[in-house]
């Protein structure tokens, strides 16, 4: 092999390594950008979904909580629907329950482009026929979100 062939082979090798490095850096950049977007989008979706799932008025509890199920996914959607149908809606109607929820703060525990775990700090104000004076309570919940077909959906909700 002459010197010209060695130099040419080395130049090609350097170009291949550089191209692979640029490709890897681009992939890492894209992943980081998607993760940051997931952090923002999942927080907005979690805040809205927490209110949809936990706030209701006994007059429209069936429709309100059924529409909240549209923002859920997996087994959690089935569990939530069963809980609403069997327990929450009947109790809300029987006791004239009204629950208002505000999200006081949300923190991202972890995020990936298609999944996020968040901690939400909630305030709830509840009134009922048994206790017409508003009762206020605070709570914390851990919410897992998954991006499904471009939408952030709740896959679990756990009180802490």
Number of helices: 3
Strand element count = 5
* Sheet having the most strands: 5 strands, antiparallel
Write the H/E string, N to C.
Answer: HEHHEEEE
Helix content: 40-55%
Percent of residues in beta strands?
Answer: 25-35%
The coarse silhouette is rod-shaped
Give the helix/strand class: alpha+beta
The CA-CA distance between the termini, in Å, is: 70 Å
Order of strands across the biggest sheet?
A: 1-2-3-4-5
Low-pLDDT regions: none
Mean pLDDT score: 90
Radius of gyration: 25 Å
Keywords:
51% helix, alpha+beta, 160 residues
Summarize the structure in short.
With 160 residues, this protein is α+β, with helices and mostly antiparallel strands. It has 3 helices and 5 strands.
Structure description:
The chain is an alpha+beta fold and 160 residues long. Helices cover 51% and strands 33% of the residues. Strands 1-2-3-4-5 form a five-stranded antiparallel β-sheet. The longest helix is centred in the first third of the chain and has 52 residues, at 3-54. The N and C termini lie far apart (70 Å).
Write the layout of secondary structure elements.
Elements (H helix, E strand, L loop, with lengths): L2 H52 L1 E2 L3 H8 L5 H22 L2 E15 L2 E13 L7 E14 L2 E9 L1
Helix pairs in contact: 1-2, 2-3
């Amino acid at each position: 092999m002459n010197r010209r062939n060695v130099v040419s082979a080395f130049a090609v090798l350097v170009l291949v390594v550089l191209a692979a490095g640029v490709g890897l850096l681009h992939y890492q950049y894209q992943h980081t950008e998607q993760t940051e977007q997931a952090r923002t989008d999942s927080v907005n979706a979690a805040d809205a979904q927490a209110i949809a799932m936990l706030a209701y008025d006994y007059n429209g509890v069936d429709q309100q909580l059924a529409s909240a199920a549209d923002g859920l996914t997996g087994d959690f959607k089935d569990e939530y629907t069963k809980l609403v149908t069997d327990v929450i809606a009947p109790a809300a109607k029987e006791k004239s329950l009204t629950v208002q929820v505000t999200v006081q703060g949300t923190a991202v525990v972890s995020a990936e482009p298609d999944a996020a775990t968040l901690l939400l700090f909630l305030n709830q104000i509840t009134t009922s026929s048994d206790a017409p004076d508003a009762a206020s309570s605070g709570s914390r919940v851990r919410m897992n979100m998954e991006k499904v077909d471009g939408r952030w959906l709740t896959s679990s909700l756990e009180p802490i």
